[in-house]
Amino acid sequence: MLRTFLFELIRRRYFFLAIALGGLVLVLPRPEGLTAQGQGTLALLVFAVVCFLTDPVPLPAVALLIGVGEVVFGIKSPQAMPRSYMSGAVFFILGSLMIGAALVHQKLDRRIALFLVKITGTGFKRVTLGLSLLAAVLASFVGPHVVAATLMPVALVLVRRNGAPPEEEKKMARTLLVALAYSAALGGFGTLSGSARNAIMMEYLRSRPYGIQVDYLEWVLLAYPMLLLTAPLIALVCIWTFRAGTKDLSRAVASLREDAGRSQGSAQAWLSGAIVLLTLVGFFTLGKRMGIGTVAVLGATLFLVTGLVTWEQLDKGVNWGVVLLYAAAISLGISMSETGAAQWVARTVLNGLAPLGFRHGLPLLFVVGLLTMLTANVMSGGPSVSVIGPVVLALGALSGEDVALVGVMCAAGSSFSYFTIMANPANSIVYSSGWVHPKDFLRTGWKMALVSLFLVLLLAGLYWPLFSL
Amino acid sequence: MELLAVVGEEVSTRDLVRFVGIVGLGFEANVTFLAVTPGSRLEFRSHTDLAADLLHEWEMETAAMKKLALVEEHLVSFRMVMAGEGGAPITRAPLHRRKDGALVRELLGLDGQTFRLLLREGKLEEEVVIETRERAYGMIFLGMPRSWRQIYRVLQFTEPPVLVIRKWEEGEYKFLVCFDGSPPSWRALRLAARIAKVLVAPLEVCAVTEMGFSMEDARKVLDKASRYLEKATIPSRVCVEDGPFEKRILAKADASTILTLGTSRKSQVRQLLLGAAPLRLASRAPGPVLVVK
Questions:
Q1: What would the pLDDT profile of A190-224 be if each residue is shown by its tens digit?
Q2: What element of type H or E holds B205?
Q3: Chain B partners of A421 at a C-beta cutoff of 8 Å?
């Protein structure tokens, strides 16, 4: 009995730590400029951050406790709290996850593999480059996890069927898989449907006090250059870091062609391609009028009504707990802005940054990008944007910057998930193959972090100001 | 009887399978080989499962599944499981997901027992504790994990005896049982005797005179132990050592010694909170350590 009790206590120690730290924030004397509701929101934020970092209990439980906390601390009324859990962004995340799950069942991996080797040829460096670009572009529309899961077997087939010695195979696998994970994660930044974190940022920008409506096309125009510039550099950095000696993949490509060639051209694949295309056209054309959440859910429903996927398959393929988690995170983020907690934190941070010269312009954007990148690598992209987002938007507003661009910078930083396995589903997926070691992410990560921060600041300084949102 | 063998990071799977397989066949016990893969975050779990399914379609496996495949390969090569046509093992149950989410596959053992291949996701020490709570295992074989903290947790929070296999040397093995006549040390002696019989390994029972345990007491309890082992027809020797317990025992053990000891019930709370001699010995012994509660 005592043994079991102690075991459970030790197992959940970080949950109790989260409660204790949240409680501490609640009982500390309230600083000037922070409302009682704001203090309650900050207590909930601290609790959520510790839980996101340490994963001590199932995260849907944390998501539900956030809602309970909002009511208990008087942040939201019992009627308003449930409403805040179902925003347009949550609907959009739901639809995107359903489309991703539906696509996996269409067996597109072999067709994508054929397309890849058709455009790249058989050179190892060209294949790595092609894989990076393809992963980034595909992930920008259907999400990093779908792309990483679909292309990982393709990359491993190319490694395993080329007849290289085991040590060389390891180097080849690391090059291709790390490039795949990084490109897919970065690709998620490319469009609003690429990743939940973009949808979360879109919702924060849309809500009070900002009221900025970002549509699908505007986001693509802002984000895509970053993606197209960085994806090839990811390939080069991985090639340079892992130094595989293989130059030619003719043997593996021939085997892959033979394998993939057997499953060409089913009507099902064409139909699913058409639905994805239609959904994308819907995002661009109807997104502003109908809301992109509605379009996403319509796309997902089309997969169901055409019989391309069954409800059971979708039910199994979509992680509903994650939808709940993002719903809670968005609700908490909006509470941060509405109660003034985000503005109070932003003021405090800004006072600390001012003497260092990071108060305006590019230095401020650099801080936003760096901060989001670091938090994304320890608690993953979505939760990171959820908790950092409201603060950096308030920071942008207080310092007189374009709030929308600050938001886009925050989303960009969250896609630089280069250091850890937990930073992004794509990293976790390639790690699960057993070919990649955690330190491989560190070896390439610092180089990519420098390159990416430099590029995003370059775009923020020269290209983004051309847009007015 | 059910045995649980945890595939560790720092001990060869081949050695673990060979040792546990021999004991399992000798005991006529069902053996579960447990591999634990680091748990991905909840938000990624369905994605990594999906990736594993897609890899499987291309006839490739994830690192965790490869671990289980390796166990199966060794079970076949040591002829511990029944093989059908083409040398493939006969399955009692194909790979499926249990209600608790663990993946499991069951093979038919040579003498009709079950060899179970089990894959759980999470922290190794926690998953071992949970698994032993859900099923009644008679003994745990713990292949050396990456950190000592994991061994401490398993020793602290599981009920069945635990054999920590740190390093497996080729050649003959011998048992060194630390004995003071207490109920736990009797349980340790009985279990060691059972395993020694299966392995045909010599056994030495040793009492250390320290802190109120006199030479006369030692001789008395060793006498009883000798008689028990004689009755059980297990070749054995006894010895008495004088001095600090851990130091004396470690001086007698080498890499091929299975150090066996019981833990005192009286110090359970202390053990849980502060650790105890078995935990310290397990971390310092050059060979395997069997801890019986």
A1: 998 888 899 899 989 988 788 888 888 889 999 99
A2: strand B203-209
A3: 40
